[in-house]
Amino acid sequence: MSIEFRKATLANGLTVIAEVNPDAHTAAIGYFVKAGARDEDRVVMGVSHFLEHMMFKGTARRTADDVNREFDEIGANYNAFTSHEMTVFYAHVLPEFLPRATDLLGDMLRPALRVEDFEMERNVILEEIGMYDDRPQWRLQDTMLETYFQEHPLAYRVLGTKESIQALKADQMRGYFEQRYGANSITVAAAGKLDFEALVRDIEAITGQWPKAPQIRRYDEPKVIFNQRSLVDAKLTRHYLAAICPAPAAQDDHRYAAMILTDVLGDSDGSRLYWALTETGLADEASFSYDPQDRFGGYIAFASCDPERSEEVEAKLLAVLDGYAASIDADEVQRAKNKIATNLTLHGERPSGRMTSLGGTWTYLGQYLPLADELERIMAVTPQDVTDLLQQYPLSQRAIVRLGPK
C-alpha cells in the first residue's frame, strides 16, 4: 500500500496533517507551535524556551512525575525544542501507543504554570545560560546575530539573558502563553502506521476547546548590518571566527540551490573549506551552513584555529567564499545533490523524520511536500541555478565576528 497524505482543520483553526504508511512499524507525532524567540518582546527574551521547560512540569491532570512516568510506560522517544521560529513537542512510539502519546503531548500544551515550579525552573534556565556562556562557539553565535540583526527580534537569544530570565515574572509568561499558544498557531503532524480518522477524533477531544491566538507573527524587515567585530577573552586558547550572509528564506525556491552551495563549500568532509582548512591542519574545524527562516534566511561560516594562525585562516576562508562564483564545478554540484538526496531519504525512512519534515514545512509554507517531490527539486538543481543564486545573494555581503585571546 502507498503512503497517503491526510489533512484536517478543526473549527478553532488547529491543523492536523499526517503521512499514513501502513507498512511502517512505528508512529510519530509532534505539536508544532509557531512561536519562538523572534515572537518575543525584548523585556521577556527567553520566555519561549522557558515556557517549553514549564510544559514538562505538570498540568491540571498530571504532575511532572506523571508526565515522565507515562512517557516511560509507553516506551516513547520524546523531547521538545525551541528555536527562533517555533517550539516543538514530539514523541515516537509503537502504533498502539499513539493515542496515549497524543493525549499526553496535548495535555502538556495546557500547563499548570505553578509559581513554585516557575521559580525552581528559573534556576535551571540560569544554569543552562551559564553553561552556554562557557562555550566560545555559542558566545560567538549570539554576538554574531546581535551584530548582524541589531534591534530585530532575530537577534534575540533563544535562552534569553541572565538579566531577562531573572526579571521574568510568572504572569508575563502566562500572558505570552495566552497570546501565542492558540489553536490557530499550532500544527499537529504525524507519520507512520496510524488511523487518521481516529487521530483527528483524539486531537479534537483534547484541543477542540482551545481558543484562537489573538496575536500572530509580525514580519518587520530586518535592517541587517554588514559590520565586523572582534572580542577578546584572555582565558581562551583558541581563536574563533564566524560570518553571516543573507540567503534565501524558507519559502524561497532558491533554497534548494542554497543547500547545494553550502554542501560544496562547507560540509564537514569533502567540501572546499574542509580541503583548504581542516584537512591541511590550519583549522580545527571549518563549516559553511544554510539557515532558512520564515521570510528570511542566512548563510553562516565558522572556523576555529590556533590564535597564531587566525589571520591566515580568515583570509583563506573568505577567499574560498569569494572565489566560488568564478569556479563552480558541475561534478561538485552533482556530488552534493547525491549526498543531500541520500541524507534526506535516510531521514525520511523513519516516521519521526517524516513527522519533523511535515510539521516544519507546513509551519513555514502551509503546504505538503512529499519526499519524492523534495528529492526531485534537489536533483533538478543545475550549476546555472547556483550561479543565479550567487548573483541574487552574493557572499561578499557579510558580517564578521571574531573571538580569541588577543
Model description:
The protein is an alpha+beta fold. The chain is 44% helix and 19% strand. The chain has 15 helices and eleven strands. The chain has helices at 47-54, 64-73, 98-108, 115-133, 136-149, 162-167, 170-180, 196-207, 255-266, 272-278, 310-323, 330-348, 351-365, 371-379, 383-392, and strands at residues 4-9, 15-20, 27-33, 77-82, 87-93, 186-192, 228-232, 239-246, 283-293, 296-305, 399-404. The strands form two sheets. The chain has a six-stranded mixed β-sheet, with helices on both faces. The longest helix is centred in the first third of the chain and has 19 residues, at 115-133. The model has no long low-confidence stretch (mean pLDDT 97).
- Total beta strand runs: 11
Q: How is the largest sheet built, in terms of strand order?
A: 1-2-6-3-5-4
User: What percent of residues adopt helix (DSSP H or I)?
Assistant: 40-55%
Q: Secondary-structure element order, as H and E? A: EEEHHEEHHHHHEHEEHHEEHHHHHE
| Biggest sheet features | 6 strands, mixed
**Outline type:** globular
Structural class: alpha+beta
Percentage of residues in DSSP E strands: 15-25%
Radius of gyration: 22 Å
* Global mean pLDDT: 97
Instruction: Count every helix, treating DSSP H or I runs of 4 or more residues as helices.
Output: 15
Task: Show unreliable segments.
Answer: none
Terminal CA distance reads: 63 Å
Seen as an oligomer or otherwise, the chain set is single chain
Short description:
The protein has 15 helices and 11 strands. It is an alpha+beta fold and 406 residues long.
